């Protein structure tokens, strides 16, 4: 089935699946059912993935704090940022019930991580589940996702709505995700709206702030900067862009409520981010995003296996981290550029 998107007024169409004669293409619920055998984790493998990831994360952050030479501290800080992204993917999978859902130890580890990394579990789970139920739908407001407006909505919107829309999807907003996404949207905003329901957000702010303060007081600004502030800033920027790009790309199909379906949104409003093996490891295979949206219970380490085994998943809309692809993604987001005329 062709996917349609309008980029700068130009209609783009591409057939994402091809078949040979006598080959039936599965879609919708049937395609979802084909992924079910992969929605089973290996407990030892899951613990190895989690254990090694957090060991490498802690080691790199400690190295960033104690290394005697600033270029070495910078190296460890950037390594820590990449490990933070991978650690977040393990947290993300745990929250979806795909990774160690019945382990009390894992629950403690991930709750502690969420507190320190400005992703308190209550607000994160609520907003992220909303995102999965609404990805690809037109919306002028954000709730767990970046907003999407049609050109008609844009023309009828007030200047305040237009300004808010541009700001929320602006490259600076995405790249300063440490403050705009994780500190404000994920942690502070839910606390402001419903204080009694989001006490874990208050604890997250306190824990994150206390960690930075203690490192600063007892080790100086450089310790806090290289061990927390810089890794978090880089990890948040990369994580925010990954999330943004996988639902704001050139071939994306944006749908109205009546034309939306869970399966269609997974295949036509979620991209495959093609990365080299190293970045694929650090990003926890989140690039296989169309598969993740099709079945959230598949552990991240099995996503490549699913794509290899199921032909219908092998030709998705694709983007990369190249400058050209990044430019395309942001062109699809500014003002009215990636909007279907309804």
Provide an overview of this structure.
With about 350 residues, this protein is mainly α. It has one domain (about 1-10, about 25-330). Helices cover about 60% and strands about 5% of the residues. The chain is built from 16 helices and four strands. It has helices at about 30-35, 45-65, 70-95, 105-115, 120-135, 150-155, 160-170, 170-175, 175-195, 200-220, 220-245, 260-270, 275-280, 290-295, 305-310, 325-330, and strands at about 1-5, 10-15, 270-275, 320. The strands form two sheets. The chain has a two-stranded antiparallel ribbon. A two-stranded parallel ribbon has the order 3-4. A hairpin with a 2-residue loop joins strand 1 (about 1-5) and strand 2. Helix 2 (about 45-65) crosses helix 11, helix 3 packs across helix 4 and helix 9 packs across helix 10. The longest helix has 26 residues, at about 70-95. The two termini are about 20 Å apart.
Features:
single chain; 342 residues; mainly alpha; two-stranded antiparallel ribbon; 16 helices; 60% helix; 5% strand
Could you write a compact summary of the structure shown?
By secondary structure, the chain is mostly helical. The chain has helices at 28-35, 43-66, 70-95, 104-116, 121-134, 151-156, 159-168, 171-175, 177-193, 199-219, 221-245, 262-268, 277-282, 289-294, 303-309, 323-331, and strands spanning 2-7, 10-15, 272-273, 318-319.
Approximately how much helix is present in the residues? 55-70%
Number of strands: 4
Kindly report the spatial arrangement of strands forming the biggest sheet.
Answer: 1-2
Task: Give the quaternary arrangement of the chains.
Answer: single chain
Find the structural class using helix and strand composition: mainly alpha
What is the percentage of strand-forming residues?
A: under 5%
The gyration radius over C-alpha positions equals: 20 Å
Indicate how many domains the architecture comprises. Answer: 1
Question: What spatial form do the alpha-carbon principal axes imply?
Answer: globular
Order of helices and strands: EEHHHHHHHHHHHHEHHHEH
């Amino acid at each position: 089935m062709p996917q349609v998107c309008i980029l700068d007024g130009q209609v783009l169409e591409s057939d994402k699946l091809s078949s040979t004669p006598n080959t039936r293409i599965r879609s919708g619920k049937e395609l979802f059912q084909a992924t079910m055998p992969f929605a089973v984790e290996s407990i030892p493998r899951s613990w190895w993935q989690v254990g090694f990831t957090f060991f490498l994360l802690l080691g790199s952050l400690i190295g960033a704090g104690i290394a005697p030479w600033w270029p070495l501290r910078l190296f460890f800080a950037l390594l820590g940022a990449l490990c933070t992204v991978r650690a977040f993917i393990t947290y993300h999978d745990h929250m979806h019930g795909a990774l160690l859902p019945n382990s009390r130890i894992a629950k403690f580890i991930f709750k502690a991580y969420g507190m320190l990394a400005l992703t308190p579990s209550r607000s994160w789970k609520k907003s992220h589940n909303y995102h999965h139920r609404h990805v690809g739908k037109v919306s002028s407001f954000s709730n767990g996702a970046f907003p999407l407006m049609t050109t008609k909505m844009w023309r009828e919107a007030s200047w305040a709505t237009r300004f808010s829309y541009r700001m929320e999807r602006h490259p600076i907003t995405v790249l300063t995700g440490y403050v705009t996404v994780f500190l404000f949207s994920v942690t502070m905003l839910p606390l402001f709206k419903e204080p009694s329901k989001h006490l874990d957000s208050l604890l997250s702010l306190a824990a994150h702030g206390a960690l930075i303060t203690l490192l600063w007081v007892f080790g100086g600004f450089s310790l806090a900067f290289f061990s927390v502030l810089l890794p978090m800033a880089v990890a948040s920027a990369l994580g925010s862009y990954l999330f943004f790009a996988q639902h704001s790309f050139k071939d994306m199909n944006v749908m109205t409520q009546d034309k939306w379906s869970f399966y269609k949104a997974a295949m036509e409003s979620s991209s495959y981010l093609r990365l080299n093996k190293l970045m694929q490891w650090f990003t926890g295979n989140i690039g296989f995003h169309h598969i993740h949206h099709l079945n959230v219970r598949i552990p991240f380490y099995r996503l490549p296996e699913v794509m290899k085994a199921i032909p219908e998943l092998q030709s998705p809309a694709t983007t990369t981290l190249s400058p050209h692809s990044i430019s395309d993604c942001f062109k699809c987001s500014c003002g009215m550029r990636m909007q279907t005329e309804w």
